Amino acid sequence: MRVYYVKYSKNRSLYFLFLLYLLLLITISIWGTVPTLVLFLGHYQEPATNFIPFSSILTYIMNFEHYNFSIWFYNLFGNILAYIPLGYFIALLFPTFNQARQILLISLFPITALEIIQYISVMGVFDVDDVLLNMLGAWIGFLLYNSLAKIFKDK
């Protein structure tokens, strides 16, 4: 009976961490990393979009010297790093989803939802490149989970 309680409370803690992660992700995606009055009033006068795949990514890579490093890093690697936990948590908490295709399809919903919210709220840009980079992050999280699961399974 005690083993069940430990397992149950452990799972409950993981779901709680996942919820905290999602709330943090929403906050950062909508208001940015440093909320200010300007952020609450919006960055853009009208909704902005980029529907051309790899357009933003190539712009940042090809024009590296024209961007502040933090802007360049945040827009390329920040989008990847922020979503690694999503793929990891989905694989960890929902073991029935054990294929990359499943993880990517499930990840697509919150990623696209946040991009749409940014567009509607005029607090950001709907950028297909952000979706691609976020999906890459979720995929890396899934690969990380599988790698660690194999390592600890063998021990």
From TrEMBL:
Statement: the UniProt record of this protein carries the keyword Transmembrane: yes
InterPro entries given in the database record: Teicoplanin_resist-assoc, VanZ-like
Chain ranges of the VanZ-like domain: 18-146
Keywords from the UniProt entry: Membrane, Transmembrane, Transmembrane helix
Pfam families for the chain: VanZ
Transmembrane segments: 12-34, 71-91, 103-126, 132-152
PANTHER family for this protein: INTEGRAL MEMBRANE PROTEIN (PTHR36834:SF1), MEMBRANE PROTEIN-RELATED (PTHR36834)
Name of the protein: Glycopeptide antibiotics resistance protein
Species of the source: Evansella vedderi
